[in-house]
Amino acid sequence: MIKKLFDVGCFDYKKFIIDYAQDLSLNSLECHILILVIEEYINNKNLNVENIYNKILANRKDFELALTKLVDRNFYSVYVKESNGKLEESISIDGFFNHVENVLTDNKNKDLSDELRLTIEYLKSKINRILTPSELEIISKMINEESYKLNDFKNVCENILNSDNITFRSIVRNINVEKKTKKAEVPDFYKEFIKSVK
User: Fold this and answer.
1) At what angle do helices 94-127 and 133-144 cross, to 10 degrees?
2) How many angstroms separate the first and last alpha carbons of the chain?
3) pTM for this predicted structure
4) Could you give phi then psi for residue 46, rounded to 5 degrees?
5) Which of 8, 74, 128, 191 has CB 3.0 to 4.6 Å from 95, enough for a Cys bridge?
6) Are strands 77-83 and 86-92 parallel, antiparallel or unpaired?
7) Residue 117 vs residues 107, 168, 178, 191: alpha-carbon distances, Å
8) 3-state secondary structure of 113
9) Which long-range contacts (CB under 8 A, 24 or more apart) does 71-75 make?
């Protein structure tokens, strides 16, 4: 998916590399070199090491070590292909896209686990006890599979009239009722678009 976005010019690889350098486990030199390798891929589909080296401020040894680490960690790969009867060295940056997808997946899972942890803490404080394993499983499914958020649980707890008697069952029942009765609101920009088309 990321590669398709990249191919049509909708993925800012430079910004991603800089913003997620820590998640990618890259130092500043490796970030700079990776950006230049991708530029070489875009412009030439091959790797001109001297061209990259001339664009950075690093000694040769550090440069070669960083370049080698990137290839060892599969951010890019070099291969030989035949074109018009000649062998040409080319590069592939598919490994980079795999790293990007891994980082994005890890961050999504981290966000979900944070949401789950915060929701469980909130519910424990509202019902004044720890949740049972079956209740934890229900909350986990609601957050991970049904896309409920902590704010959904907070809204339901605020709307339960007798807040002295908030139970797990009343929270879950009310949140499901609220979801079923809530009508999907159409965003204003969409309403304006529909008016302009008519």
Assistant:
1) 130
2) 35
3) 0.57
4) -135, 175
5) 74
6) antiparallel
7) 15, 16, 22, 37
8) helix
9) 73/25, 74/98, 74/99, 75/34, 75/37, 75/99
Distance CA 151, CA 131 (A): 19
* Paired tokens of 72: 């060892």
Q: Which of 101, 98, 91, 50 is nearest to 71 (CA)?
A: 91
Amino acid at position 154, single letter: K
Residue located via tokens 């896309």: 147
Is residue 116 over pLDDT 90?
no
CB 38 within 8 A of CB 69: no
Per-residue pLDDT tens digits for 78-102: 888 887 888 877 888 889 999 998 8
